[in-house]
Amino acid sequence: MAETINDRSQIEIKPQEPPPFISFDFSDEVLLEQRTLLLRSRSQRKKNTWVISLFVFLHIVAFAATMFVNNCWTNSNGDCLLKFLGRFSFQPLWENPALGPSSSTLTAMGAIRRALVIQQHQTWRLVTCLLLHAGAIHFIINLSCILLIGIRLEQEFGPLRTGIIYTFSAVLGGLTSALFVHNSPAVASSSALFGLIGSMLSGIIRNWEVYSDKVVALVSLFIITTGNLILGLLPHIDNFSNIGGLLSGFLLGFVLLFNPQLVEVAQTKEGLFEYKVKSSVKFRNKVDKPVQRTLSLVLFALLFTVSLLAVLHGVDANKYCSWCHYVDCVPSRRWSCNEKPSSCEVLVSPGRLTFTCKSNDHFRVYLFTNISRERMEDLCSLICA
To answer: What mean pLDDT comes out for the span 321-335?
Structure first.
């Protein structure tokens, strides 16, 4: 019986071979080939980009709502650009060179005006102005740059840190705008973009040993920054908010942009913002720089607090800087940087309105009469410019 059991239960036991050894000691050639991309494919962008996607969606909704309210076809009696768009057509170029709504529409939608924010205490405009764009040109360029830089930051440093930088840079940009803004409506949606630019710059400086193509990265940021600052010279786009957002993002970048998610992003072979895997692995093992982070956080808190208190107390920063208005506006034949109140004499005749500016005697005849008082103020400001 024992033999039968032994015959039936014969099991051949072979010595177990050791598992193959996996080495993590990559050669320098392999390490140098593993890079990360700033511009990723659509499949790569699906991960960890919900924060930037949410902000972009809010901007799209706000711009569509602004053009719907503007209703150039009705409020401007068909004197519009791209008339085939109907209700969503743009104001003429001589009125809004950024292809957008009228000044009165921007005011109604929540743009910043000093008389409204400081004198009438409409502080809610400090939030609404962050979602508004001066026109289609501003809208397209701003959102394209936000996607280009924001997605990169969110993929490498996560949605939480990117969302904090975006939000606080936008808010500080709005506060800076309120300190310098005059009575013409201004929007501050680009302040968040400049916050992302500033944080990317400080991230490169902070993680200097990580990045391999720093020159290309810095040149790219310089081009984006310069282009958007030039765009900020157009009417209704506030460059002071851009500067405030840039400072905010730069300081917050030193505070938050540490320990990039190298394992998840170091899989491609080329790009604008690249880093060496060998250097990055060593860098992640280094002790963080607490003094640098603390100093940057203190400076940001001080800047934010001072700006907030100055706005609440109605401080006009233009009184302390006579040349600062050139940062935000360059005089042109199409528009003026003069902020003196406009006053016009309006002559109503059958089927036409004649506006005459009292300060310079310029006049213009419009072949319609059924316009609102707010629209009359827009036309008066344009004639007196």
So the answer is: 77
- The pLDDT tens digits of the residues spanning 104-130 come to 999 999 999 988 888 888 999 999 999
pLDDT at 100 (0 to 100)? 93
Model pLDDT, residue 284: 45
Task: Say which amino acid occupies 2.
Answer: A
Q: Would you give the DSSP letter of residue 186?
A: B
Other C-beta atoms closer than 10 Å to the C-beta of 210 total 23
- What per-residue confidence (pLDDT) applies to 335? 67
pLDDT at 296 over 70: yes
Q: Which among 194, 176, 190 is positioned nearest to 126, based on CA atoms?
A: 176
Are the CB atoms for 49 and 151 separated by under 8 Å?
A: yes
Structure tokens at 212: 């391999």
Q: Order across the sheet with 363-366: list the strands.
A: 344-349, 352-357, 363-366
Residue 77 predicted with pLDDT over 60? yes
**Higher-confidence residue: 210 or 295?**
295
- Do 193 and 145 form a contact (C-beta atoms < 8 A)? yes
Residue with tokens 């008389």: 115
How many residues can be counted in the chain? 385
Instruction: Report the distance separating Cα 322 and Cα 330, nearest Å.
Output: 14
In degrees and rounded to multiples of 5, residue 96 shows phi and psi of -140, 95
Output the average pLDDT for the chain.
80
In DSSP terms, 243 is beta-bridged to: none
CB 274 within 8 A of CB 35: yes
| The dihedral formed by the CA atoms of 304, 308, 314 and 315, expressed in degrees to the nearest 10 | -10
User: Which tokens go with 354?
Assistant: 């004649």
CA–CA gap between residue 122 and residue 109 (Å, rounded): 12
Residue 212 main-chain phi, psi, to 5 deg: -105, -25
* Of the candidates 156, 141, 143, the residue with the CA atom closest to the CA atom of residue 38: 156
- The predicted structure's pLDDT at residue 33: 39
Q: If we measure between CA atoms, which residue out of 204, 219, 213, 217 comes closest to residue 283?
A: 204
Task: Give the C-alpha separation, 67 to 89, whole Å.
Answer: 8
Residue type, position 287, single letter = V
pTM: 0.80
d(CA 300, CA 306): 10
